[in-house]
Amino acid sequence: MSKHKRLNTKILITVLIICAVVTVIIAVGLGPVSVSPITTAKILISRIPFLGSVIPQTWEQLDYNIIIGLRLPRVLLGLIVGASLAVTGVTMQALVRNKLADPFILGVSSGASAFATLGMLFGVFSFLGQYSLSLSAFIGSAVTIIFVYIISRTNGRINIPQLLLSGVAVSMIMDGVTNIITLSAPNALGLHNAAFWMSGSLAGAKWDYLTLPLAVLAVCMVVLMINYRGLNLLVLGDESAGTLGINVGRLQKLLILVASLMSGVTIAISGSIGFVGLMVPHFTRLITGGDHRKVLPVSALLGGILVVWVDVLARMVIAPEELPVGILTAVIGGPIFIWMLRRKQR
Amino acid sequence: MRLEIDGLSFSYCNGNTVEDITINVKKGEFIGIIGPNGSGKSTVLKNLYRALSPHTGTAVLDGENLLKMSYKKSAQKMAVVGQENEIPFDFTASEIVAMGRTPHKKLFDADTAEDVYMTHHALEHVGMENMADRDFQELSGGEKQRVIIARAVAQESDFWLLDEPTNHLDIGYQMQIFDFIKRLDVTVLAAIHDLNMASLYCDRIYVLKDGKIVLSGTPTEIFTPENIYDVYGVNCTVEIHPITKKPTITFLPEGF
Protein backbone atom coordinates (compact mmCIF):
# COMPACT_ATOMS: atom_id res chain seq x y z
CA MET A 1 0.00 0.00 0.00
CA SER A 2 2.36 2.63 -1.18
CA LYS A 3 -0.02 5.26 -2.44
CA HIS A 4 -3.52 5.49 -1.06
CA LYS A 5 -6.20 8.05 -0.49
CA ARG A 6 -7.54 8.13 3.02
CA LEU A 7 -11.26 8.04 3.72
CA ASN A 8 -13.05 11.34 3.74
CA THR A 9 -13.14 12.29 7.41
CA LYS A 10 -16.50 14.03 7.34
CA ILE A 11 -18.19 11.00 5.81
CA LEU A 12 -16.40 8.70 8.24
CA ILE A 13 -17.49 10.72 11.27
CA THR A 14 -21.09 10.94 10.01
CA VAL A 15 -21.19 7.17 9.50
CA LEU A 16 -19.77 6.62 12.98
CA ILE A 17 -22.31 8.94 14.57
CA ILE A 18 -25.11 6.98 12.85
CA CYS A 19 -23.48 3.75 14.07
CA ALA A 20 -23.38 5.17 17.59
CA VAL A 21 -27.08 6.04 17.50
CA VAL A 22 -28.01 2.62 16.11
CA THR A 23 -25.75 1.03 18.74
CA VAL A 24 -27.57 2.88 21.51
CA ILE A 25 -30.98 1.80 20.20
CA ILE A 26 -30.04 -1.85 19.81
CA ALA A 27 -27.88 -2.10 22.94
CA VAL A 28 -30.61 -0.56 25.10
CA GLY A 29 -33.00 -3.30 23.95
CA LEU A 30 -30.61 -6.17 24.65
CA GLY A 31 -30.44 -7.93 27.99
CA PRO A 32 -32.28 -10.49 30.09
CA VAL A 33 -35.54 -8.73 29.17
CA SER A 34 -35.21 -7.86 25.51
CA VAL A 35 -37.11 -5.02 23.91
CA SER A 36 -37.41 -4.75 20.14
CA PRO A 37 -35.39 -1.97 18.48
CA ILE A 38 -38.57 -0.32 17.12
CA THR A 39 -40.17 -0.11 20.56
CA THR A 40 -36.86 1.13 21.94
CA ALA A 41 -36.63 3.81 19.29
CA LYS A 42 -40.19 4.91 20.05
CA ILE A 43 -39.49 5.09 23.79
CA LEU A 44 -36.31 7.08 23.17
CA ILE A 45 -38.04 9.51 20.80
CA SER A 46 -40.85 9.99 23.33
CA ARG A 47 -38.28 11.46 25.68
CA ILE A 48 -37.26 14.14 23.22
CA PRO A 49 -39.09 17.41 23.98
CA PHE A 50 -41.82 18.45 21.41
CA LEU A 51 -41.23 15.28 19.37
CA GLY A 52 -42.40 13.07 22.24
CA SER A 53 -46.09 13.94 22.05
CA VAL A 54 -46.24 12.83 18.40
CA ILE A 55 -45.48 9.20 19.25
CA PRO A 56 -48.49 7.23 20.51
CA GLN A 57 -47.75 5.20 23.65
CA THR A 58 -47.81 1.57 22.53
CA TRP A 59 -45.27 0.12 24.96
CA GLU A 60 -45.53 -1.45 28.38
CA GLN A 61 -44.61 0.67 31.38
CA LEU A 62 -42.13 -2.07 32.44
CA ASP A 63 -40.24 -1.76 29.14
CA TYR A 64 -40.18 1.99 29.60
CA ASN A 65 -38.72 1.65 33.10
CA ILE A 66 -36.08 -0.82 31.99
CA ILE A 67 -35.06 1.27 28.99
CA ILE A 68 -35.05 4.72 30.53
CA GLY A 69 -34.28 3.92 34.15
CA LEU A 70 -31.75 1.12 33.84
CA ARG A 71 -30.27 0.52 30.42
CA LEU A 72 -30.08 3.92 28.80
CA PRO A 73 -27.85 5.48 31.49
CA ARG A 74 -25.65 2.39 31.32
CA VAL A 75 -25.33 2.49 27.54
CA LEU A 76 -24.67 6.22 27.54
CA LEU A 77 -22.07 5.76 30.28
CA GLY A 78 -20.49 3.10 28.08
CA LEU A 79 -20.27 5.59 25.23
CA ILE A 80 -18.75 8.28 27.45
CA VAL A 81 -16.32 5.91 29.16
CA GLY A 82 -15.23 4.31 25.88
CA ALA A 83 -14.72 7.68 24.25
CA SER A 84 -12.78 8.99 27.26
CA LEU A 85 -10.52 5.93 27.39
CA ALA A 86 -9.79 6.09 23.67
CA VAL A 87 -9.05 9.81 23.76
CA THR A 88 -6.85 9.39 26.86
CA GLY A 89 -4.98 6.70 24.97
CA VAL A 90 -4.47 9.02 21.99
CA THR A 91 -3.22 11.77 24.32
CA MET A 92 -0.80 9.49 26.14
CA GLN A 93 0.56 8.05 22.91
CA ALA A 94 1.25 11.51 21.53
CA LEU A 95 2.80 12.59 24.83
CA VAL A 96 5.27 9.72 24.92
CA ARG A 97 5.58 9.35 21.13
CA ASN A 98 4.76 5.68 21.39
CA LYS A 99 1.84 3.74 19.99
CA LEU A 100 2.10 1.18 22.77
CA ALA A 101 1.37 3.62 25.55
CA ASP A 102 -1.96 3.75 27.31
CA PRO A 103 -3.05 5.08 30.71
CA PHE A 104 -2.61 1.66 32.27
CA ILE A 105 0.96 1.17 31.08
CA LEU A 106 1.97 4.40 32.79
CA GLY A 107 0.32 3.31 36.04
CA VAL A 108 -2.39 5.95 36.07
CA SER A 109 -5.16 3.47 36.71
CA SER A 110 -3.22 1.71 39.46
CA GLY A 111 -2.85 5.04 41.19
CA ALA A 112 -6.53 5.78 40.71
CA SER A 113 -7.41 2.33 42.05
CA ALA A 114 -5.24 2.75 45.13
CA PHE A 115 -6.73 6.12 46.07
CA ALA A 116 -10.28 5.17 45.14
CA THR A 117 -10.12 1.93 47.13
CA LEU A 118 -8.81 3.92 50.06
CA GLY A 119 -11.84 6.14 49.70
CA MET A 120 -14.30 3.27 49.21
CA LEU A 121 -13.14 1.11 52.08
CA PHE A 122 -12.09 3.67 54.68
CA GLY A 123 -14.00 6.75 53.64
CA VAL A 124 -10.79 8.78 53.62
CA PHE A 125 -12.11 11.19 51.01
CA SER A 126 -15.70 11.36 52.27
CA PHE A 127 -15.26 15.07 53.01
CA LEU A 128 -15.37 15.58 49.24
CA GLY A 129 -19.07 14.70 49.24
CA GLN A 130 -20.99 13.20 46.33
CA TYR A 131 -18.01 13.09 44.01
CA SER A 132 -15.54 11.73 46.57
CA LEU A 133 -14.94 8.53 44.59
CA SER A 134 -14.29 10.36 41.33
CA LEU A 135 -12.11 12.97 43.01
CA SER A 136 -10.08 10.41 44.96
CA ALA A 137 -9.48 8.40 41.78
CA PHE A 138 -8.54 11.62 40.03
CA ILE A 139 -6.08 12.58 42.77
CA GLY A 140 -4.61 9.07 42.59
CA SER A 141 -4.11 9.19 38.85
CA ALA A 142 -2.71 12.73 38.96
CA VAL A 143 -0.23 11.82 41.72
CA THR A 144 0.89 8.75 39.77
CA ILE A 145 1.34 10.44 36.43
CA ILE A 146 3.19 13.43 37.91
CA PHE A 147 5.43 11.01 39.80
CA VAL A 148 6.13 8.97 36.66
CA TYR A 149 6.70 12.14 34.65
CA ILE A 150 9.20 13.56 37.13
CA ILE A 151 11.15 10.29 37.36
CA SER A 152 11.48 10.02 33.60
CA ARG A 153 12.60 13.58 32.88
CA THR A 154 16.30 13.85 32.23
CA ASN A 155 17.95 17.06 31.04
CA GLY A 156 14.57 18.69 30.64
CA ARG A 157 12.99 16.11 28.35
CA ILE A 158 11.20 12.83 28.73
CA ASN A 159 13.26 9.71 28.34
CA ILE A 160 10.83 7.23 26.77
CA PRO A 161 12.25 3.89 28.00
CA GLN A 162 12.56 5.40 31.46
CA LEU A 163 9.00 6.67 31.27
CA LEU A 164 7.65 3.21 30.47
CA LEU A 165 9.80 1.53 33.11
CA SER A 166 8.92 4.04 35.80
CA GLY A 167 5.27 3.63 34.79
CA VAL A 168 5.56 -0.10 35.38
CA ALA A 169 7.37 0.44 38.70
CA VAL A 170 4.93 3.03 40.03
CA SER A 171 2.07 0.84 38.83
CA MET A 172 3.42 -2.04 40.89
CA ILE A 173 3.83 0.14 43.96
CA MET A 174 0.27 1.39 43.60
CA ASP A 175 -1.08 -2.15 43.05
CA GLY A 176 0.73 -3.16 46.23
CA VAL A 177 -0.86 -0.28 48.09
CA THR A 178 -4.28 -1.28 46.72
CA ASN A 179 -3.73 -4.85 47.93
CA ILE A 180 -2.69 -3.69 51.40
CA ILE A 181 -5.83 -1.57 51.57
CA THR A 182 -8.18 -4.33 50.40
CA LEU A 183 -6.57 -6.92 52.71
CA SER A 184 -6.97 -4.71 55.73
CA ALA A 185 -10.52 -3.80 54.76
CA PRO A 186 -12.87 -3.48 57.72
CA ASN A 187 -15.91 -5.01 55.96
CA ALA A 188 -16.56 -7.80 53.50
CA LEU A 189 -19.20 -6.01 51.45
CA GLY A 190 -16.87 -3.09 50.80
CA LEU A 191 -14.25 -5.61 49.73
CA HIS A 192 -16.57 -7.26 47.21
CA ASN A 193 -17.66 -3.88 45.86
CA ALA A 194 -14.09 -2.73 45.53
CA ALA A 195 -13.04 -5.93 43.74
CA PHE A 196 -15.95 -5.67 41.30
CA TRP A 197 -15.31 -1.99 40.73
CA MET A 198 -11.61 -2.56 40.07
CA SER A 199 -12.37 -5.17 37.43
CA GLY A 200 -14.13 -2.48 35.46
CA SER A 201 -17.88 -2.46 35.16
CA LEU A 202 -20.67 -0.25 33.95
CA ALA A 203 -23.22 -1.95 36.22
CA GLY A 204 -24.96 0.41 38.59
CA ALA A 205 -24.89 3.29 36.11
CA LYS A 206 -27.37 6.01 37.06
CA TRP A 207 -28.36 9.21 35.33
CA ASP A 208 -26.58 11.13 38.12
CA TYR A 209 -23.27 9.51 37.18
CA LEU A 210 -23.30 10.79 33.62
CA THR A 211 -22.89 14.53 34.15
CA LEU A 212 -19.34 14.70 35.47
CA PRO A 213 -17.66 12.30 33.01
CA LEU A 214 -19.57 13.86 30.11
CA ALA A 215 -18.52 17.35 31.15
CA VAL A 216 -14.90 16.25 31.60
CA LEU A 217 -14.92 14.47 28.24
CA ALA A 218 -16.41 17.50 26.49
CA VAL A 219 -13.95 19.98 28.03
CA CYS A 220 -10.92 17.75 27.43
CA MET A 221 -12.01 17.00 23.87
CA VAL A 222 -12.30 20.73 23.14
CA VAL A 223 -8.88 21.41 24.71
CA LEU A 224 -7.31 18.60 22.68
CA MET A 225 -8.98 19.60 19.41
CA ILE A 226 -7.74 23.18 19.87
CA ASN A 227 -4.25 21.76 20.33
CA TYR A 228 -4.37 19.16 17.57
CA ARG A 229 -1.47 20.78 15.73
CA GLY A 230 0.55 20.64 18.91
CA LEU A 231 -0.26 16.94 19.32
CA ASN A 232 0.84 16.27 15.74
CA LEU A 233 4.08 18.14 16.27
CA LEU A 234 4.81 16.48 19.60
CA VAL A 235 4.88 13.19 17.72
CA LEU A 236 7.75 14.54 15.59
CA GLY A 237 9.79 14.96 18.77
CA ASP A 238 10.34 17.72 21.31
CA GLU A 239 13.00 19.50 19.29
CA SER A 240 11.03 19.62 16.05
CA ALA A 241 7.91 20.70 17.92
CA GLY A 242 9.85 23.55 19.50
CA THR A 243 11.28 24.73 16.20
CA LEU A 244 7.78 24.72 14.67
CA GLY A 245 6.42 27.09 17.27
CA ILE A 246 5.16 24.82 20.06
CA ASN A 247 5.96 25.49 23.70
CA VAL A 248 6.68 21.84 24.42
CA GLY A 249 6.96 22.06 28.19
CA ARG A 250 3.61 23.80 28.48
CA LEU A 251 1.86 21.42 26.08
CA GLN A 252 3.22 18.37 27.91
CA LYS A 253 1.88 19.68 31.20
CA LEU A 254 -1.50 20.39 29.59
CA LEU A 255 -1.68 16.88 28.16
CA ILE A 256 -0.75 15.35 31.48
CA LEU A 257 -3.53 17.35 33.13
CA VAL A 258 -6.05 16.32 30.48
CA ALA A 259 -5.02 12.66 30.56
CA SER A 260 -5.14 12.38 34.33
CA LEU A 261 -8.46 14.24 34.50
CA MET A 262 -10.12 11.96 31.95
CA SER A 263 -8.61 8.70 33.14
CA GLY A 264 -9.17 9.55 36.79
CA VAL A 265 -12.84 10.37 36.33
CA THR A 266 -13.44 7.44 33.97
CA ILE A 267 -11.77 4.96 36.28
CA ALA A 268 -13.68 6.31 39.26
CA ILE A 269 -17.01 5.69 37.53
CA SER A 270 -16.31 2.42 35.78
CA GLY A 271 -13.12 0.93 37.25
CA SER A 272 -10.21 -0.06 35.05
CA ILE A 273 -11.50 -1.12 31.66
CA GLY A 274 -8.31 -2.23 29.97
CA PHE A 275 -7.00 -2.10 26.43
CA VAL A 276 -9.65 0.23 24.96
CA GLY A 277 -7.21 3.12 25.30
CA LEU A 278 -4.57 1.11 23.49
CA MET A 279 -6.48 -0.65 20.73
CA VAL A 280 -8.89 2.03 19.62
CA PRO A 281 -6.27 4.73 18.84
CA HIS A 282 -4.21 2.13 17.00
CA PHE A 283 -7.10 1.01 14.79
CA THR A 284 -8.18 4.59 14.27
CA ARG A 285 -4.74 5.45 12.92
CA LEU A 286 -4.97 2.55 10.48
CA ILE A 287 -8.07 4.25 9.04
CA THR A 288 -7.24 7.94 9.34
CA GLY A 289 -3.46 8.16 9.49
CA GLY A 290 -1.73 10.07 12.27
CA ASP A 291 -3.36 13.51 12.01
CA HIS A 292 -4.92 14.20 15.41
CA ARG A 293 -7.61 16.38 13.90
CA LYS A 294 -9.06 13.10 12.59
CA VAL A 295 -7.72 10.66 15.17
CA LEU A 296 -9.33 12.38 18.17
CA PRO A 297 -13.00 12.42 17.06
CA VAL A 298 -12.86 9.09 15.23
CA SER A 299 -11.25 7.26 18.13
CA ALA A 300 -13.72 8.82 20.57
CA LEU A 301 -16.64 7.45 18.52
CA LEU A 302 -15.03 4.05 17.94
CA GLY A 303 -14.12 3.75 21.63
CA GLY A 304 -17.65 4.58 22.71
CA ILE A 305 -19.25 2.10 20.32
CA LEU A 306 -16.77 -0.64 21.25
CA VAL A 307 -17.33 -0.33 24.99
CA VAL A 308 -21.12 -0.37 24.59
CA TRP A 309 -20.96 -3.62 22.61
CA VAL A 310 -18.45 -5.29 24.94
CA ASP A 311 -20.74 -4.29 27.81
CA VAL A 312 -23.69 -5.90 26.01
CA LEU A 313 -21.57 -9.04 25.75
CA ALA A 314 -20.64 -8.73 29.43
CA ARG A 315 -24.26 -8.80 30.52
CA MET A 316 -25.32 -11.51 28.03
CA VAL A 317 -22.54 -14.11 28.29
CA ILE A 318 -23.42 -15.56 31.67
CA ALA A 319 -26.87 -13.97 32.08
CA PRO A 320 -28.55 -13.43 34.50
CA GLU A 321 -25.14 -12.93 36.18
CA GLU A 322 -22.80 -10.48 34.54
CA LEU A 323 -19.09 -10.18 33.96
CA PRO A 324 -17.16 -7.01 34.70
CA VAL A 325 -16.63 -5.48 31.27
CA GLY A 326 -12.95 -4.89 32.06
CA ILE A 327 -12.37 -8.63 32.20
CA LEU A 328 -13.78 -9.04 28.69
CA THR A 329 -11.75 -6.18 27.20
CA ALA A 330 -8.64 -7.70 28.80
CA VAL A 331 -9.37 -11.18 27.46
CA ILE A 332 -10.08 -9.85 23.97
CA GLY A 333 -7.50 -7.04 24.06
CA GLY A 334 -4.54 -9.04 25.37
CA PRO A 335 -4.06 -11.16 22.26
CA ILE A 336 -4.49 -8.07 20.06
CA PHE A 337 -1.78 -6.28 22.03
CA ILE A 338 0.55 -9.23 21.51
CA TRP A 339 -0.23 -9.23 17.79
CA MET A 340 0.60 -5.50 17.65
CA LEU A 341 3.92 -6.08 19.41
CA ARG A 342 4.86 -8.85 17.00
CA ARG A 343 3.82 -6.73 14.03
CA LYS A 344 5.95 -3.82 15.27
CA GLN A 345 9.05 -5.98 15.29
CA ARG A 346 8.72 -6.91 11.63
CA MET B 1 23.20 41.87 10.47
CA ARG B 2 20.61 39.14 10.96
CA LEU B 3 22.03 36.87 13.63
CA GLU B 4 24.59 37.89 16.22
CA ILE B 5 25.80 35.26 18.65
CA ASP B 6 28.07 36.71 21.30
CA GLY B 7 30.06 34.86 23.96
CA LEU B 8 27.73 31.87 24.04
CA SER B 9 28.81 29.07 26.38
CA PHE B 10 27.20 25.80 27.35
CA SER B 11 28.40 22.69 29.15
CA TYR B 12 26.88 19.22 29.40
CA CYS B 13 26.99 17.35 32.72
CA ASN B 14 29.58 14.98 31.23
CA GLY B 15 32.05 17.84 30.84
CA ASN B 16 31.71 18.51 27.10
CA THR B 17 31.46 22.23 26.53
CA VAL B 18 31.22 24.91 23.92
CA GLU B 19 32.87 28.11 25.04
CA ASP B 20 32.69 31.74 24.09
CA ILE B 21 31.06 31.19 20.68
CA THR B 22 30.78 34.38 18.64
CA ILE B 23 29.20 34.10 15.20
CA ASN B 24 27.72 36.76 12.93
CA VAL B 25 25.43 36.07 10.00
CA LYS B 26 24.54 38.81 7.52
CA LYS B 27 21.41 38.87 5.39
CA GLY B 28 21.59 36.43 2.50
CA GLU B 29 24.77 34.74 3.64
CA PHE B 30 25.31 30.97 3.70
CA ILE B 31 27.48 30.39 6.76
CA GLY B 32 29.01 27.03 7.59
CA ILE B 33 30.17 25.61 10.90
CA ILE B 34 32.67 22.80 10.48
CA GLY B 35 34.78 20.80 12.89
CA PRO B 36 35.58 17.23 13.91
CA ASN B 37 33.02 14.93 15.59
CA GLY B 38 32.29 16.13 19.11
CA SER B 39 33.66 19.61 18.47
CA GLY B 40 30.28 21.10 19.41
CA LYS B 41 28.66 22.00 16.06
CA SER B 42 25.30 20.55 16.97
CA THR B 43 25.54 21.89 20.52
CA VAL B 44 25.88 25.44 19.23
CA LEU B 45 22.84 25.02 16.99
CA LYS B 46 20.80 23.33 19.73
CA ASN B 47 21.45 26.37 21.92
CA LEU B 48 20.10 28.57 19.15
CA TYR B 49 16.90 26.61 18.60
CA ARG B 50 16.54 26.16 22.35
CA ALA B 51 16.78 22.42 22.67
CA LEU B 52 19.50 23.48 25.14
CA SER B 53 19.83 26.74 27.04
CA PRO B 54 23.21 28.48 27.13
CA HIS B 55 24.78 29.29 30.50
CA THR B 56 26.14 32.62 29.30
CA GLY B 57 26.09 34.67 26.13
CA THR B 58 23.51 36.23 23.87
CA ALA B 59 21.88 35.46 20.55
CA VAL B 60 20.12 38.26 18.73
CA LEU B 61 18.02 37.60 15.62
CA ASP B 62 16.86 40.65 13.64
CA GLY B 63 17.53 42.86 16.64
CA GLU B 64 15.54 40.72 19.08
CA ASN B 65 16.70 38.38 21.82
CA LEU B 66 16.34 34.94 20.25
CA LEU B 67 16.64 33.14 23.57
CA LYS B 68 13.62 34.92 25.08
CA MET B 69 11.43 35.01 21.98
CA SER B 70 8.10 33.11 22.03
CA TYR B 71 8.37 29.75 20.31
CA LYS B 72 5.80 30.83 17.77
CA LYS B 73 7.72 33.95 16.81
CA SER B 74 11.07 32.20 16.56
CA ALA B 75 9.40 29.56 14.37
CA GLN B 76 8.08 32.29 12.07
CA LYS B 77 11.58 33.74 11.73
CA MET B 78 13.71 30.62 11.77
CA ALA B 79 13.35 27.13 10.30
CA VAL B 80 15.43 24.23 11.57
CA VAL B 81 16.37 21.10 9.65
CA GLY B 82 18.13 18.38 11.59
CA GLN B 83 19.81 15.17 10.54
CA GLU B 84 17.41 12.51 11.71
CA ASN B 85 13.70 12.54 11.35
CA GLU B 86 12.22 9.35 12.72
CA ILE B 87 8.48 9.75 13.10
CA PRO B 88 6.85 6.83 14.86
CA PHE B 89 3.27 7.56 13.69
CA ASP B 90 1.71 7.32 10.24
CA PHE B 91 1.66 10.70 8.55
CA THR B 92 1.64 11.29 4.81
CA ALA B 93 4.32 13.45 3.24
CA SER B 94 1.87 16.32 2.72
CA GLU B 95 0.66 16.10 6.33
CA ILE B 96 4.26 16.49 7.49
CA VAL B 97 4.78 19.48 5.19
CA ALA B 98 1.50 21.06 6.33
CA MET B 99 2.88 21.03 9.88
CA GLY B 100 5.26 23.74 8.73
CA ARG B 101 2.24 26.08 8.65
CA THR B 102 1.78 25.77 12.43
CA PRO B 103 3.60 28.98 13.45
CA HIS B 104 1.23 30.97 11.22
CA LYS B 105 -1.85 29.55 12.88
CA LYS B 106 -3.79 30.96 15.77
CA LEU B 107 -5.48 28.70 18.30
CA PHE B 108 -8.81 28.29 16.51
CA ASP B 109 -7.64 28.69 12.89
CA ALA B 110 -8.56 25.99 10.40
CA ASP B 111 -6.39 25.18 7.39
CA THR B 112 -7.02 27.69 4.62
CA ALA B 113 -6.64 27.54 0.84
CA GLU B 114 -3.34 29.40 1.32
CA ASP B 115 -2.06 26.62 3.59
CA VAL B 116 -3.00 23.99 1.04
CA TYR B 117 -1.31 26.04 -1.69
CA MET B 118 1.86 26.57 0.36
CA THR B 119 2.04 22.87 1.19
CA HIS B 120 1.71 21.91 -2.46
CA HIS B 121 4.15 24.61 -3.55
CA ALA B 122 6.71 23.44 -0.99
CA LEU B 123 6.43 19.84 -2.16
CA GLU B 124 6.84 21.00 -5.75
CA HIS B 125 9.95 22.93 -4.80
CA VAL B 126 11.66 19.73 -3.72
CA GLY B 127 10.14 17.68 -6.55
CA MET B 128 8.00 15.58 -4.23
CA GLU B 129 4.52 16.62 -5.38
CA ASN B 130 3.86 13.13 -6.76
CA MET B 131 4.54 11.59 -3.39
CA ALA B 132 2.27 13.87 -1.37
CA ASP B 133 -0.01 11.03 -0.26
CA ARG B 134 2.74 8.53 0.46
CA ASP B 135 3.36 7.44 4.05
CA PHE B 136 6.35 9.33 5.40
CA GLN B 137 7.71 6.20 7.04
CA GLU B 138 7.86 4.38 3.71
CA LEU B 139 10.03 7.03 2.04
CA SER B 140 13.78 6.61 1.57
CA GLY B 141 16.23 8.64 3.62
CA GLY B 142 16.75 11.19 0.85
CA GLU B 143 13.03 11.55 0.18
CA LYS B 144 12.35 12.00 3.90
CA GLN B 145 14.89 14.78 4.08
CA ARG B 146 13.34 16.47 1.03
CA VAL B 147 9.97 16.38 2.77
CA ILE B 148 11.53 17.99 5.85
CA ILE B 149 13.07 20.67 3.61
CA ALA B 150 9.61 21.20 2.10
CA ARG B 151 8.21 21.59 5.62
CA ALA B 152 10.75 24.34 6.25
CA VAL B 153 9.76 25.96 2.92
CA ALA B 154 6.10 25.88 3.99
CA GLN B 155 7.17 27.53 7.23
CA GLU B 156 8.03 30.62 5.16
CA SER B 157 10.86 31.74 7.42
CA ASP B 158 13.87 33.24 5.70
CA PHE B 159 16.50 32.21 8.24
CA TRP B 160 17.48 28.55 8.23
CA LEU B 161 19.47 26.58 10.77
CA LEU B 162 20.76 23.32 9.33
CA ASP B 163 22.26 20.64 11.55
CA GLU B 164 24.17 18.37 9.17
CA PRO B 165 21.07 18.00 7.01
CA THR B 166 22.74 15.69 4.51
CA ASN B 167 24.35 13.29 6.95
CA HIS B 168 23.75 9.64 5.96
CA LEU B 169 22.70 10.69 2.45
CA ASP B 170 24.56 9.73 -0.70
CA ILE B 171 26.23 12.37 -2.84
CA GLY B 172 23.33 12.92 -5.26
CA TYR B 173 20.92 13.69 -2.45
CA GLN B 174 23.48 15.83 -0.61
CA MET B 175 23.94 18.11 -3.61
CA GLN B 176 20.23 18.14 -4.31
CA ILE B 177 19.37 19.24 -0.76
CA PHE B 178 21.95 22.02 -0.75
CA ASP B 179 20.88 23.16 -4.23
CA PHE B 180 17.24 23.34 -3.09
CA ILE B 181 18.22 25.50 -0.16
CA LYS B 182 20.58 27.69 -2.17
CA ARG B 183 17.81 28.34 -4.70
CA LEU B 184 15.52 29.63 -1.94
CA ASP B 185 17.63 32.69 -1.36
CA VAL B 186 17.42 32.45 2.42
CA THR B 187 19.99 33.24 5.09
CA VAL B 188 21.60 30.03 6.34
CA LEU B 189 23.67 28.90 9.29
CA ALA B 190 24.62 25.27 8.75
CA ALA B 191 26.71 22.69 10.54
CA ILE B 192 28.35 20.71 7.74
CA HIS B 193 30.29 17.50 8.00
CA ASP B 194 31.79 17.33 4.53
CA LEU B 195 34.53 19.88 3.90
CA ASN B 196 34.16 19.93 0.11
CA MET B 197 30.42 20.55 0.49
CA ALA B 198 31.17 23.41 2.87
CA SER B 199 33.63 24.79 0.35
CA LEU B 200 31.09 24.60 -2.50
CA TYR B 201 28.14 26.20 -0.74
CA CYS B 202 29.37 28.47 2.08
CA ASP B 203 30.16 32.17 1.83
CA ARG B 204 32.00 32.07 5.13
CA ILE B 205 32.98 29.31 7.51
CA TYR B 206 33.56 29.05 11.26
CA VAL B 207 35.78 26.21 12.43
CA LEU B 208 35.08 24.59 15.80
CA LYS B 209 37.58 22.51 17.69
CA ASP B 210 37.08 21.23 21.25
CA GLY B 211 34.13 23.56 21.73
CA LYS B 212 35.91 26.73 20.67
CA ILE B 213 35.99 28.67 17.43
CA VAL B 214 39.56 28.43 16.18
CA LEU B 215 39.24 29.90 12.69
CA SER B 216 36.81 31.88 10.60
CA GLY B 217 36.82 33.24 7.09
CA THR B 218 36.01 32.46 3.47
CA PRO B 219 36.50 28.88 2.21
CA THR B 220 39.68 30.00 0.44
CA GLU B 221 41.08 31.42 3.68
CA ILE B 222 40.05 28.45 5.80
CA PHE B 223 40.91 25.49 3.60
CA THR B 224 44.66 25.28 3.60
CA PRO B 225 46.56 22.03 4.18
CA GLU B 226 48.02 23.51 7.40
CA ASN B 227 44.64 24.48 8.87
CA ILE B 228 43.09 21.13 7.98
CA TYR B 229 45.99 19.28 9.56
CA ASP B 230 45.71 21.41 12.72
CA VAL B 231 42.00 20.78 13.09
CA TYR B 232 41.47 17.26 11.74
CA GLY B 233 44.97 15.80 11.91
CA VAL B 234 44.97 14.62 8.30
CA ASN B 235 47.19 15.44 5.35
CA CYS B 236 45.67 16.86 2.21
CA THR B 237 46.25 18.99 -0.83
CA VAL B 238 44.03 21.92 -1.75
CA GLU B 239 43.52 23.22 -5.27
CA ILE B 240 41.26 25.94 -6.58
CA HIS B 241 38.92 24.09 -8.91
CA PRO B 242 38.93 25.51 -12.45
CA ILE B 243 35.15 25.43 -12.84
CA THR B 244 33.80 26.22 -9.39
CA LYS B 245 36.70 28.52 -8.41
CA LYS B 246 36.34 27.02 -4.93
CA PRO B 247 39.00 25.19 -2.93
CA THR B 248 38.83 21.44 -3.51
CA ILE B 249 40.33 19.27 -0.82
CA THR B 250 41.93 15.93 -1.63
CA PHE B 251 42.78 13.89 1.45
CA LEU B 252 46.00 11.89 1.43
CA PRO B 253 46.12 8.47 3.05
CA GLU B 254 49.20 7.45 5.02
CA GLY B 255 52.16 6.77 2.72
CA PHE B 256 51.78 9.69 0.32
**Main β-sheet, spatial strand arrangement of chain A:** 1-2
Largest sheet of chain A: 2 strands, antiparallel
Give the SSE order of chain B as H and E letters. Answer: EEEHEEHEHHHEHEHEEHHEE
Order of helices and strands of chain A: HHHHHEEHHHHHHHHH
The value of Rg of chain A in angstroms is 21 Å
Shape of chain A: globular
Structural class of chain A: mainly alpha
CATH class of the domain at 3-85 and 157-252 in chain B: Alpha Beta
Q: Going across the biggest sheet of chain B, name each strand in turn.
A: 6-7-8-3-9-10
Top CATH class of chain A: Mainly Alpha
Q: Helix share of residues of chain A?
A: over 70%
Strand content of chain B: 25-35%
**Which fold name is given in CATH as the topology of the domain at 3-85 and 157-252 in chain B?**
Rossmann fold
The total domain count of chain A is 1
Helices of chain B, by number, come to 9
Can you identify the CATH superfamily of the domain at 3-85 and 157-252 in chain B? Answer: P-loop containing nucleotide triphosphate hydrolases
- Main pleated-sheet profile of chain B: 6 strands, mixed
Instruction: Estimate the helix proportion of chain B, in percent.
Output: 25-40%
Structural class of chain B: alpha/beta
